[in-house]
Amino acid sequence: MQSTSRITERLDALYEFDREPVPENKLLGPSNFIGVYAGEHVAGTEYVIGPLFVAHGVAAADLIVGLLLGNLLAVLSWAFIAAPIAVKTRLNLYWQLRKIAGPKLTFVYNIVNALMFCFLAGSMISVSATAVGLPFNMAMPGLNDMYPNSIGWVVVVLLVGAVVTALAILGFERLSHFGKVAAPWMFLVFVASAIAVLPTLGVNSFGDFWRVANERIWTGVPEAGQSKFTFWHVVFFSWFCNMAMHIGLSDMTLLRYARKWQYGFLSAFGMYVGHFTAWIASGILCAAALRNFAPGPIAYLGAGISGAICVLVAGWTTANPTLYRAGLALQTATPDWKRWKVTLAAGIVTTLAALFPALMMKLLDFVALYGLILMPMGAVVFTDFWILPRLGMNSNIAEIRRLAINWPAAVAWALSLLICFLLPVEIFFKGLPGWFVCVVLYVGGSWLVQRRLSPARVAREDTLEVPGIGRSAQ
Amino acid sequence: MKTTAKLLSYIALGLTVVPSFYVFAGSITWQTHAGLMLGGTLLWFVSAPIWMKKD
User: Fold this and answer.
1) Residue A175 lies inside a defined structural domain of this protein
2) Is A425 a domain residue?
3) Which domain holds residue A348?
4) Widest CA span of chain B, in angstroms?
5) What is the tally of structural domains in chain A?
6) Does A195 contact B38 at a Cβ distance shorter than 8 Å?
7) How many cross-chain Cβ pairs, A to B, lie less than 8 Å apart?
8) Beta partners for A28?
9) How many separate helices (H) and strands (E) can be counted in chain A?
10) What does pTM read for this prediction?
11) Do B38 and A177 touch (CB under 8 A)?
12) Which CATH number is A69's domain given?
């Protein structure tokens, strides 16, 4: 009993800085960010995304150049959009958003955010399950499977989900360290697996690679039932697959610990190690596996038992911080809940989501949708922080005026999403115009609301003692 | 202790990646590569936690 209470206290103490700006003595150096980015973006889902590009018939040149450009745009988004705000406020997105959007709107955002994180973690559990099921000859889900395809799949996913959730509750810190330890090894397993299977594809010298890449891997011909991906699909997917993190500002949670905003450039270690090399490697593995799309079998084909372990570890170690993020998001919605309860709730939703292989096999669409839904609030925070003061308007109006909902923010979020969904383009291309639409809507809405307040009134309210960030949550 | 662990970790990473080039060159079989990689995997997870610092 006493030890349970000690665990609970320790877990709660882990997150005591979440509600306050990060103090100077807690700031971290660049190596931490290199490790986190490289680790987070060499994940179990990399074993899915690379093969899905193959399934969508991306041509080899489109893939290579598209990934180079898209990942560069992602790095620039981290460096010039997420990092400067994180370093100036030292708050995570949820508490910054509360000052801008008000507690009720932040509550809604956090629930949506937590659900998205749960689904993302769910896809990682699905990935791990394909490795755990290997020795039991479990029927692997196919590219077009939407629902659980066997009892074995259900049992394995429930088992993996239960273990991931239990370990996340019992020792987040230790698991987080384990993820960092595993990262360099995981990356090398990706690379080594791909190199080892090249001869089976007919690559017997490095000179053969480009010909085989075009003829047998990224042929430019999509699988039956899959849409055709072009260069622009690759650029926009690789730019926006982490849209919630950079343009959507979720990574304020991480970057608020950075000594300098330039640490945002360190995301390049994640992009070019994970979202370039690992996607190419897993695409090669998929082609060598005769277009099998289940991560466990393709990793086994390249590296044997180590490959299966890699899929399991990659899925598990990335599901863990995603569950942590879901917990953080839920914490602001349920401030009276203990950390373990929040993590358990997130773990249950995550495991139930993981039962559906569609989450894994339609990962490209889900990732794009996830970024799109969360992106407008990043646009709102960006606009509130940089643009409104330059237009003579107040930032953090919800905190100043003690608003439960900042309606311009709510309308900008809802309306920009509506406009995005109405745009007659594929989901991968909706984010960019959507961001500008949201900025315009939020500026316009704020102007309409704030012009009704006399400058004297705003100034007077501005000087009133406002509740602390933590207390305003209550 | 840490220096030894670090050295073993580098050997582990070598065992993980180098055999794949030999498979590519046709010098060793895939089975040998997979076996060596498993050895590298075990060695990495035993040695790396000793010297990789916790934040």
Assistant:
1) yes
2) no
3) 31-373
4) 43
5) 1
6) no
7) 76
8) A258
9) 23, 0
10) 0.87
11) no
12) 1.10.4160.10
